[in-house]
Structures are given as structure tokens and as C-alpha cells.
Amino acid sequence: MSSKAESYIFKKVISIGTVCELTGLSERQIRYYEKRKLIFPERSERGNRKYSFSDVEALMEIANKIEEGMQTSELRKELNMKQSSSYDHAVKETMIRGQLNAYFNKRQ
């Protein structure tokens, strides 16, 4: 995926009303998921919530899992594990790059 497409997906420009239309969720539900730290909108200068297409996808996933009977606390644990896993992967990748750079620089 190109960086333009990635920036488009993650750019926080969608209002809560539009998110409601796209997801079928109410503003109250979306605010609740934010309160439970499952979604992280940005705020405009006026304090309005702004979401990305990535947030919309996350909200759809959250709604589906809650409909299946999952609790928000379980979803939060799952989210923490995903974030931790992504962080661990990034750290390992950085360490490997550093080791490779050191090895190849040493050989020159």
C-alpha cells in the first residue's frame, strides 16, 4: 500500500455524525467505546471528535464482537495485546537492523 493510501486511511477527518451513518452505531455507543479506551478520536479546535477510516473499521469490529457477546474489558485486553505485539515487533526489527548495520559496517 502506498504512503498516500495509508495517510488517507489514518487521517482523522470524519465527524461523529458521519461515523454513525457509516457504522449504524449511535453517538452514545461511540462515545462509550471511547470512554472504555477502545477508540481514540482526535479533537478539532472546537472540541469536535474526528475519526479516520481506520477508526470506522475498528468500530465495526468492536460492534461485531460486542454483538457476539464479548465484553469491553475483554476487547481492551485484546487491543493492548495487539499494541504490545506491534511494539515488540518494531523493537525486534530495529534491533535486527542495528545488528545487520553493525555487522556490515564492521566488514567494510
From TrEMBL:
Single GO molecular function: DNA binding
Span of domain HTH merR-type: 13-81
SMART domains associated with the record: HTH_MERR
SUPFAM superfamilies referenced in this protein's UniProt entry, alphabetically: Putative DNA-binding domain
Classification via Pfam families: MerR_1 (PF13411)
Keyword annotations of the record: DNA-binding, Repressor, Transcription, Transcription regulation
Record's keyword annotation contains rRNA-binding: no
PROSITE patterns: HTH_MERR_2
PANTHER family reported in the protein's UniProt record: HTH-TYPE TRANSCRIPTIONAL REGULATOR TNRA, REDOX-CYCLING DRUG-SENSING TRANSCRIPTIONAL ACTIVATOR SOXR
Name of the protein in its database record: MerR family transcriptional regulator
Species name: Terrilactibacillus tamarindi
